[in-house]
Amino acid sequence: MVDESTPLNAATATAAATAVAANVTTTADGHVKVGGVDVDTKAIKAAAAAVLTKENADKAKVFAKAQYDKLKKIASDGNMSLTFLALVGGVAMMVTSVMGVVGRFLTLSWVGALFDVYIFFFGVLVVFLEWKKFPGRDKYNMVIHTYFHFLDYIWGRGVLYFVAGSLQFSLFGLLDIAVGGFMCFVGILYIIVGKIAHAKFVNAKEAMLSEHTIAAKFNEADVEDKGSINLEQFEIMTKSLGMELEKREVEIAFLEIPKVSDKEDRITLESFKNWWTKADTLDFV
């Protein structure tokens, strides 16, 4: 037995190898015993061969490629929710700004600390706008609609997110650049996707769809017969009206339409019709 406290050198390594070898014996039927315990080497080889076959390797390769293609398609098709991206960015702004303000107070960097305070409140505002269950949302939502009416528009949110991201990016810390750049990207996405969705709705309006047709399609989508529809049902309705909208474009358009309430993320036929009649004058950008 080699003591674990013995310094590792050539002599001790040789002694350890000799000790292990002394405990290994081979039986006539091909079994190996280590320390008196049977080890079936044939079974081990067979299991290894079964796992490491070319067929299994090919299957693993196909599976990996399928997952890669799936992720690539999600990225290219824009299936990831814009509101989710904005929410993640808002939370990241809050977290990184708290970390930043602590560090800058310790280094007496007062201007940087003040910037971090601003960034924190920008992050809170982003989360407030995108998270329907934000505490006290009902209480403060009217204030937002009254004094910051531009945030009711998609372009308004896009500009806000871009400005907030630019502010954090200007601090030039590694995390600040990453999070700030991400929020700038989200802001640009809001503006671009909003513009595309706006153009498609204007084109659909020019197709002279009657109010009766719109009402019929709305009622078809309202499978729960609630007199209102959610985002998924709104997407079904737009398709039935002949609009070829991407998921993000549907989401952006839905954000623009007044909801039943702040707690219930649904739209009524009346609110959709009011929004629809102003489709050619909507300020998406």
Automatic annotation (TrEMBL):
Topology class, membrane: Multi-pass membrane protein
TM regions (residue ranges): 82-102, 108-131, 143-163, 169-193
Annotated keywords: Membrane, Transmembrane, Transmembrane helix
GO cellular component, one term: membrane
Matches recorded under InterPro entries: EF-hand-dom_pair, EF_hand_dom, Golgi_TVP15
PROSITE patterns assigned: EF_HAND_2
Keyword Isomerase belongs to the record: no
Pfam families, sorted: COPI_assoc
SUPFAM superfamilies: EF-hand
EF-hand domain segment(s): 209-244
One GO MF term attached to the UniProt entry: calcium ion binding
Localization terms from the record: Membrane
Protein's name according to its UniProt entry: EF-hand domain-containing protein
Organism name: Ditylum brightwellii
